[in-house]
């Protein structure tokens, strides 16, 4: 059409897609590639029936490809609040770029890839001597940097029954400064999985910490007096973290131990690394 | 890829689109056109982040093109209830094919085209001697017949401040059996517009009927004794309808009148056409 209009320069070739077949965005983008110069749409796809094409997604698709759409989405949640207030229709949790869940990974493999992508992004930024926000964005599963939209990274990795050790370890490290060795991550992931399978709900970092403490720091009452428990504990490995929350300034020791044929993990908290080590040993004896 | 795989017959070429750029559906459809033979998705597009591609929309896009997807969507709202219950995430009002608003036209021009499309569909069905459900579907703005999904036509035309005379007339005709002549439709649309502009809300057929009665059947108290009101009424035209609700079995007369330089419409209801005519004339005198 673009090539066959007689006085092409005298018309504005415009497309007006609705989303009835779920293809409004692709329709607009392919039309522009075919020569259209205007797209008629609505913010976040409001409009008759399934809505007019979402101009926010169109703009942010450009942004994700390195083209400046010249629209300010640096606080997308504020735009969303105004639109929801004006339209009296909520935006869906999975709406591209703006929904509550769209930067969130629950799946273990996704979390793992995203955590590695974040680390790589930081490494490349440091290597190039640029701010992280200035570096080209190339993190798996996230088409844009959530920070470009005024979002934080808090929402990116969340844990439910589909998550694995990666997400759990990430949350404990990010929220509490607690680094878990890989074999303990595997052990603790089973504990969390039992919990999420039973509860069927997402777990936040607080809950993870509560589960961790209950599992690896058994209270005195948990001790029993069977003869096996009296065997000597043999420490196999020990890992220490400086806790940043909820008990900032204290230390955590995680202790891998063997007692006869039995092996396991225990943990302890203290005002110094030594004190944390002793608490971890005491916890191991109570196991 | 499809053409360049060495042992093409030994692999299942499968795509797994998510909707991060709002293009999951188009991605799957173009992939299948390019030779893919499997699409991995979720019902109504649930799944990590923006969700996996919506297999219901993919299937119903095929249905809309005359290809049987061999999935039973004859009661799509029941499927939706199960999915919402299982996922604990509501489906958006504008989600293709299944959202609450996706078969609904508020816009006057859309309503007009849909009402004409409905009439044409009935006419072609009658002409061909087929049931309406057996005739190819070709109604503007509605990619599929809502009845194919277990939906009724009640939701198709609804009235708010963006609607015109067509939707108003359609609702009064469909719900109350009341046929309004075109010039009265224009007059009444102004009354409805004043109401929707003030209230900012959708109006249902009941409200339209209440507005209609208040406007064209003024109560006795509305009469005044200025000399102009005493002039003789000259009837210009008269239209009668058999009311189907809320007063089934009664008749409505709408009367176009002139009194000096003044022109207007009045209406009356009666147990017979004559009685309705008299009531309309009395209402005109009270104007």
3D structure, described in words:
Two copies of one chain form a homodimer. The first copy, chain A, is α+β, with helices and mostly antiparallel strands and 287 residues long. Chain A has helices spanning 24-33, 55-64, 76-87, 108-128, 165-176, 182-199, 205-216, 227-230, 273-286; strands at residues 14-15, 38-39, 234-242, 251-259, 262-270. Chain A contains nine helices and five strands. The first copy, chain A, is elongated and about 95 Å long. Chain A has three domains: 2-87, no CATH class; 108-214, Orthogonal Bundle (Helix Hairpins), CATH 1.10.287; 217-286. In chain A, helix 4 (108-128) crosses helix 5 (165-176) and helix 5 crosses helix 6. Chain A has a three-stranded antiparallel beta sheet. The first copy, chain A, has a two-stranded parallel ribbon with strand order 1-2. Chain A binds chain B through residues 19-27, 29-30, 45-46, 48-51, 54, 57, 61, 64, 89, 92-96, 99, 101-107, 110, 141, 143, and chain B through 19-27, 29-30, 45-46, 48-51, 54, 57, 61, 64, 89, 92-96, 99, 101-107, 110, 141, 143.
The percent range for strand residues of chain A is 5-15%
Number of strands of chain A: 5
Query: What CATH architecture label of the largest domain in chain A applies?
Result: Orthogonal Bundle
Give helix % range of chain A. 25-40%
Look up the CATH topology of the largest domain in chain A: Helix Hairpins
Please provide the ordered H/E string of secondary-structure elements of chain A: EHEHHHHHHHEEEH
Helix count of chain A equals 9
Mean pLDDT of chain A: 91
Class from helix and strand fractions of chain A: alpha+beta
Uncertain residue ranges of chain A? none
Number of domains of chain A: 3
Determine the oligomeric state from the structure: homodimer
Radius of gyration of chain A: 26 Å
Family (chains A, B): Belongs to the alpha-IPM synthase/homocitrate synthase family. LeuA type 2 subfamily.
Region (Disordered) (chains A, B): 265-287
Protein name (chains A, B): 2-isopropylmalate synthase
Pfam families (chains A, B): HMGL-like, IPMS_D2
């Amino acid at each position: 059409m673009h090539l066959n209009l007689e006085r092409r320069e005298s018309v504005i070739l415009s497309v007006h897609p609705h989303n009835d077949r779920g293809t409004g965005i692709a329709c607009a983008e392919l039309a522009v590639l075919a020569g259209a110069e205007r797209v008629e749409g609505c913010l976040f796809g409001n409009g008759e029936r399934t809505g007019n094409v979402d101009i926010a997604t169109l703009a942010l698709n450009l942004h994700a490809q390195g083209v400046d759409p010249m629209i300010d989405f640096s606080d997308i949640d504020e735009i969303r609040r105004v639109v929801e207030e004006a339209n009296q229709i909520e935006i869906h949790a999975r709406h591209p770029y703006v929904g509550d869940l769209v930067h969130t990974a629950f799946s273990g493999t996704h979390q793992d890839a995203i955590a590695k992508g974040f680390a790589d992004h930081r490494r490349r930024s440091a290597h190039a001597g640029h701010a992280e926000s200035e570096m080209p964005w190339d993190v798996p599963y996230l088409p844009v940097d959530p920070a470009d939209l005024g979002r934080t990274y808090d929402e990116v990795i969340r844990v439910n029954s589909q998550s694995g050790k990666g997400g759990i370890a990430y949350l404990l490290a990010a929220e509490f400064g607690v680094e878990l060795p890989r074999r303990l991550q595997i052990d603790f992931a089973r504990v969390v999985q039992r919990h999420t399978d039973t509860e069927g709900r997402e777990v936040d970092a607080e809950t993870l910490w509560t589960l961790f403490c209950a599992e690896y720091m058994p209270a005195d009452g948990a001790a029993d007096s069977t003869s096996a428990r009296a065997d000597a504990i043999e420490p196999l490995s020990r890992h220490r973290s400086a806790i940043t929350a909820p008990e900032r300034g204290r230390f955590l020791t995680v202790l891998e131990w063997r007692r006869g044929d039995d092996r396991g993990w225990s943990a302890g908290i203290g005002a110094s690394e030594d004190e944390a080590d002793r608490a971890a040993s005491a916890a191991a004896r109570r196991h």
